[in-house]
Amino acid sequence: MVFTLIVITAAAAGWSLVAGWLEQRHVRAPLVLVLAGIITGLFTQSEIAATLNSEVAQHVAEVILAVLLFVDATELPGGRLFGNDPGAAARALLVALPLSLAAMVLLGSLLLPALPAALLLLIACIVVPTDFAPAETLVRDTRIAARVRNVLNVESGYNDGIVSPIFLFALILAGSTAQAHTPMQALGTAVPSAAKALIAGIVLGPLLAWLMNSADRMHWTTEQSRRILVLVAPLLAYTMTVAADGNGFVASFVCGIAFRYVRQSPTRRGGAQAPDASDFRLIEDTNSILTMCMWFFFGNAVVLALGDGVHWPTVALCVAALTVVRIVPILLAFLGSHFTWRERLMLGALGPRGTTSIVFGLIAFNTLPDGPDADTVLYATTLTVLGSVLLHGVGSTAIARLLTRPSAASATETTTAGRRAS
Question: Is residue 151 within 8 Å of 374, Cβ to Cβ?
C-alpha cells in the first residue's frame, strides 16, 4: 500500500508539473495515471486482485462516485436543467440512452449467450454512460459546433445519475444478494431505495443551499467555509441515505441539482443567481485528485483483466459499445431534429467512457460473488474504458477534424493562422 501511494502521488506530481505542455499534445491526466497503473501492476500482479476486490476499495469507489455525481449535477450549462438546448439533451438522455442500454443487452445475448440477462444489463449500465474525463478538451474544441458540445456536456453530466438506479437494480438481480432472485424481488429492493434517495436529495440539497444563503446574508461564512460546505454536501447526502437503506448515488445526484438551483452567489442579490464558481473549486479539485486515483487503479485492473488472454466475443461487444451501440441510437433519437447529419454523427462518435464506468465496474466486481461473472464484468469494463482512452482521448482530434464541415475547418485554420501571425 505504501508503494502504491508513492507511485500515485509521484505520477500526479509529475503530471502537475507538465500538465500544460502535455495538454497541448492532447495527453491528459487519465492517460498518464493509467500508464503508471499498468507499469506498477506488472510488478505487483499477485496483489492486484486482493486490492481491487476489497471492502475498502469498494467504499472508496462509492464515495468517489457520490462526489462525481454531485459535481456533474451542479455543472449545468446556461443555468438550465438540460443546458442551452433542453430538447436536444432530452433526446440524448431520454431516448438514445435507453436505446443504447437495450441494444447492449440484445447484442450481448447474441455474442455471449451463456450470460444471464441481468448480467448483460449490468454490463450495459457500466459501459454505456459517457464521461469526459479522458477527453475533456472536446468540450472546448471550437471546431465542434457549440450545440453539439452543449449536448455532450449535459449528457456526460446526467447519464450516470439516470443509469445509477438501473445499475443497482441489475446488480441486485445479477446475484449481489441472495434475497432477490426475480425482477419483482429486485424491484422490491431497488424502488424503495430510489424513493428514499429522491426524498433525501430533494430535502438536503435545498436545505443546505438555503442555510448557506442565509449564513452569507448574516456574514457568518468565509470563502473557505463555503467551499468546505459544498464538499461535504454530497458526502452528507450519500451517508445519510445509505444509513436509511437508500440509494446514496441518486441522493447525491439529486442533491446537486437541487443545491444548484437554490444556491445564490453571496456577491449578487435578488432573484435566482448562478452559484459563485469559487464555492466549487475545492470539490472540483478534490474530485480531480480522487479520479486520478481511480485511473491509476484502472491501470492495475488492465493488467489483471488482460492477464488471462483475449476473449474475442467480449472484445466485439466492447467495440460495439464504443461505436454502433452509441452511434445508431443517437441517429435514431435525433431524427427530425435541427441537427445536421454531420452533427448527429459527431454526437455519436464522441462519446468517451471514463470514471463512471470504472467506478460502476469496480463496485460490480467487488459486489458480485467471485467467479466468471465478476471476471467478465471487470474484463468488459477494462476493455471499453481502455478503448475509449485511445479512441476518444488520443484520437478525439482526428474524429473532430474528420467530421467537421470543410468550410468550418478552413475557417478555424484561418483564424488560428491569423492569431499566430499577430
Answer: no
pLDDT in tens, 45-100: 767 766 676 677 778 888 888 998 898 888 765 455 666 788 999 999 999 999 99
CB 89 within 8 A of CB 151: yes
Cβ–Cβ < 8 Å for 28, 22? yes
> Of the candidates 240, 223, 239, which has an alpha carbon nearest to the alpha carbon of residue 282?
223
Residue 72 contacts residue 155 (beta carbons within 8 Å): no
Alpha-carbon distances of 159 from 290, 362, 374, rounded to whole Å: 20, 18, 24
pTM confidence score:
0.82
Cβ(198)–Cβ(250) below 8 Å: yes
Q: Please return the burial class of 315, using the count of CB atoms within 10 Å of its CB with bins 0-12, 13-18 and 19+.
A: middle
The helix (run of H) or strand (run of E) holding residue 33 is helix 29-43
Per-residue cell: 350: 464522441
Alpha carbon separation from 131 to 142, 342, 390, 392 (Å, rounded): 19, 21, 14, 11
Q: How far apart are CA 218 and CA 245, in angstroms?
A: 36
pLDDT digits (tens, 9 = 90+) for 289-322: 888 888 888 888 888 888 777 889 999 999 999 9
- In the 8-state DSSP scheme, what is residue 353? -
**Which element (helix H / strand E) includes 208?**
helix 183-217
CB count in 10 Å sphere of residue 325: 26
**Cell numbers of 170, please?**
441489475
Local structure of residue 274 (DSSP, 8 states)? P
The torsion angles phi and psi of 277, rounded to 5 degrees, stand at -60, -30
Cα→Cα distances 360→126, 196, 302, 418, Å: 6, 21, 15, 46
